Structures are given as C-alpha cells and as structure tokens.
Known about the structure:
This protein is α/β, with parallel strands linked by helices. Helices cover 39% and strands 17% of the residues.
Amino acid sequence: MRVRLPLLPLxxxxxxxxxxxxxxxxxxxxxxxxxxxxxxxxxxxxxxPGFSFLRRDGSFSGLDVDICRAFAAAITGSPDQVxxxxxxxxxxxxxxxxxxxxxxxxxxxxxxxxxxxGGNGVSFAPVVFHDGQGLLVKRDSGFTNLKSLEGxxxxxxSGTTTEQNLNDAFQAKGIDYKPIKYxxxxxxxxxxxxGRCSAMTSxxxxxxxxxxxxxxxxxxxxxxxxxxxEPLAPxxxxxxxxxxxxxxxxxxxxxxxxxxxxxxxxxxDKLEEAKNRPELTQLRRFLGLEGDLGEKLGLNxxxxxxxxxxxxxxxxxxxxxxxxxxxxxxxxxxxxxxxKGGVLTSPPFQ
Length: 350
C-alpha cells in the first residue's frame, strides 16, 4: 500500500528554505554574509526613547542602537554600516528566521522558552539591560497596587512576555482584570492616554521612556510592585555559533572596557601606551596587539579598539541615553559593574 505523506504548507516550506539560505552553502555563518555585504541589518523598535528611537531627522538613537553600532564596528570596521529595521514585537522573530535582519537589538527578554532549541529558534547574546515589568497609572486615579486594579482594564502589548507576565501576576493573587491588547508600544500608550484602560503595563524602562514624552509626565506614576524579571538582550537566529560568539564578546568588550577604565576619550592613548609597553600583556591582548582573539571570533584582532572608538564603553553608552542628564533618566542599579553594586562583569579576554 502506498502511503501519501502530508504536504508541508507552502509558507512553512518557504520559511525553511529562506532560513537555510541565510546560512549559505555548507552551513556558513551569517557573519561571513555581513562582512561580504559590508553592512549590518539590525532589527530595532524605533519607538522607545532611550533605547531605540527614530528622530525627526531620520536617524536612530538609544542604547539598543549603540549596541547595533558596536556590532557593526566589530564586524564591518565601521559603526555607520548599519541598516536599521523597525519591527513590532510580533514581527521580530519572523524577521530573524527569514533572514530579513542579521540580528535583533530590540528590548527582548532573554528567557528559557525563547533560548531553547524548541522555542523561537534564536540564540541570545549577554544581557545589556536588566529590567522588570511594572504598571503605569494616572496620579489622581487612586490606584496604588495590583489589588486596587481588580476588575479594571489594562493596556498591554500582544505577542510579548509582558502579556504572559501580567496574567501570571494577577492570577497568582486571584485578581480579575481585563487586558486590552495592542500590536506595539505606541498603540498601548495611545490607548492608555485616551482612557481606554485604567493602567498600562510594560518593562519599567519602557514606562519611564513613554512617560518622558507625555505632556505632563508628573501626572503619571509607576507603581512600586514589580511583576517580573526582564533581562533584555540582543539575539541572532539559532544555530549560528560563529555570529553568536562574535555578538557575545562584543558585549563583553563593552563591559570589560569600563572595568579597565578604557573610554572613547582615552582609547587612543591606551592603545599607544600598550604599543610602547610590552609588559602590559593583558591590555595588549585586549586591544589586539598580541594574540589572535579577534581571529578566533572571525573578527579583526583590533575589534575592541573599533568598538570603543565608535561607541565608548558600556557605561558611556548607558549615561548617554539613560544617565541622569539624559531625556530618560533611569538609575543604573543592576546595570552597574559588579564592583559598584551591579551585576555586570566580563569573562577574561585570554
């Protein structure tokens, strides 16, 4: 008897073929494609001040954008060789799987379901911002905690961990609520400001960024209850070890540079010092004057120098976009170096 196997749906087949094509023949890394193209295609939000925001002049700015620029500097040699692709939350993983983008730097939570092989088929780089989910309400609303929101409507982005965390938090306390779902953060904000819901929920960083753009920010407060841990990290398509390794050590380079006191301002002086002092083995290795650490990653040995010249170290990126003098000031907290009470540290460059 002849058994007829079910045909693979056309869309699934196209996605499969496209995914294979992104790695090239023989399982080559997308890292090689980026270098040949001499341009990085980086997925961002474009709608979150302080993280990735499209300015009126058509340029992008924010912490996530500078992470893209650091990747581009390391891979192509120039931080400006980046094409930014604004993506909604539901679009982001499909854009990775189909090869529309090379990597994603878009306030995405690093969790087991996404990282596992049976999840979204992605691989995460180290966390670049330790966040948590919260709730924003109008100051005169009378809402002070989760219990006070019982039976109320809450605006939330669909297709995100935010939606699941909201349900988990309210369900755990036996509190009923009604979610009002939107496709992206701008719609969530609009729904909240138009009075379609009693509160809006998102990562604390996004709530702070959103509130900074309100006509009267002081009339809105973030409740003290934190609903979840939200470690945000860049990511690439799963199975591409070389690209993921390169991304991982670009992030560690930003952190290690801050640990070593190397900044955008003094990088050239540090490089000159290392050239003239052969006994500074650690510094020479870090800056690519000794060894072949860059080559092990498929990068030039001076990739760290290129990164720091382009963006500065992690602390400089943070202060530029989220520091006390920025438009979206957020205390560093966990996002500080481990030596200063945070959790950031880099493995050795050796």
